[in-house]
Amino acid sequence: MIPGCVDLHTHLASTPTFAPLDDFEHGTRAALAGGVTTVVSMVYQEDGSLRRGIERAIRDAKRSLADFAFHVVVTDPSEAARAEIPALVREGHAGLKVFMVTPRFVERRDEYRLLLSAAAEAGAVVAIHAEDHAIVADRTAALHASGRTGVEHFPESRPVEAEVKAVAEALALAAATKAAIYLVHLSSRAALDVVREGRRRARVFGETRPLYLYLTRAQFDRADAALWVGQPPLREADDVAAVWTALADGTLDTVGTDHIPHTRAAKLAPGLTFDRIPPGVSNLETLLPMLYSEGVRKGRLTLPRLVDVVATGPARIAGMFPRKGAIAVGSDADLVVFDPEARRAVRAAELHSACDYDPYEGWDVTGWPEIVIARGEIVFERGELRAEAGRGKLVTRAALS
Ligand SMILES: [Zn+2]
């Protein structure tokens, strides 16, 4: 038995112009069936207001089967937005997110620095998507100019150096502002080396995502490569080995799914250039089984370390520990009775996501949840979901001290 998993990185909330294929209801069906009993979703600042983004997400999450919390993506780091942070943190919304890869980040760098200072003061963790805007924009423009717009060029449009440069800048910002940062979906050996070194002067947490543990750039030789498009792209086998090592040695603190699937038709739509393919894949239901099967069974991770990276670590970073991420008196009874010998191939048709394909279709996986308990209720048992939409509750996040 292990604690219910906490996924610090999902995209289940809507925006005024976007409704995800897996919303809170569908996404958390997949989550519970996979042993993930708490999800943290990105939500977007709306009409300049962080609070309005959270209010929308709370409305969306009324259909959630799992417990939930949020990171607010700050698209306009105005003085008014920064002023909202202390009250939001006091109410339990102690998470922000910044995309360094947007032109906005470059244009408003000084305001983003003030945002990180405000987060540090209030005790909010800042999740950061670290890819350098200029490098990605230049590579993308050069590829377009030479007519190389097919999906096979996606990896070269977002090279490792873009990740390394942004990670270094994020660490410098964190050191200067004293903000606690959470670097999402780290993918390369070179970026992990920078994180390892930067830990000495900044408060930094690291996340990788399942794609970087199991697949390489070789996927982009396939005609249907678009199915695996995510940002950053899949890397080389040496990077995969480095990500496993970083997960085992503590350079990485968590595996977050970045769950945001799109249908096959949306990913493979004819005429999409490499930079227009909707990024993201499904991962909530396979997070724990794949990590057990490929990590623990193959000797790359110990079982206690697996529990750290999918439950205890994320719960601590999110300010939910020990309510979540622990089996203890006083903690929520979120538990996974895990069958380490259960063997099943991954088949999208048998999974709970609304998506019609899975990035690991056909993978032979040993070790699946048998029974999942959330706040003391059996919510999944031997292949069957037994939870109702709407049973999930908001988990208030404590400020980081
Ligand atoms: Zn994401």
What does this structure look like?
With about 400 residues, this protein is an alpha/beta fold. The protein is built from 14 helices and 13 strands. It has helices at about 25-35, 50-60, 80-90, 105, 110-120, 135-145, 155, 160-175, 190-200, 210-215, 235-250, 265, 285-295, 305-315, and strands spanning about 1-5, 5-10, 35-45, 65-75, 95-100, 125-130, 180-185, 205-210, 255, 335-345, 365-375, 375-380, 385. It has an eight-stranded parallel β-sheet. Strands 1-10-11-12-13 form a five-stranded antiparallel β-sheet, covered by helices on one side. β11 (about 365-375) and β12 (about 375-380) form a beta hairpin. α3 (about 80-90) runs parallel beside α5 and α8 runs parallel beside α9. The protein is globular. About 55% of the residues are buried. The model has no long low-confidence stretch (mean pLDDT about 100). It binds zinc ion (ZN). Zinc ion binds near residues 11, 42 and 258. Zinc ion binds next to loops.
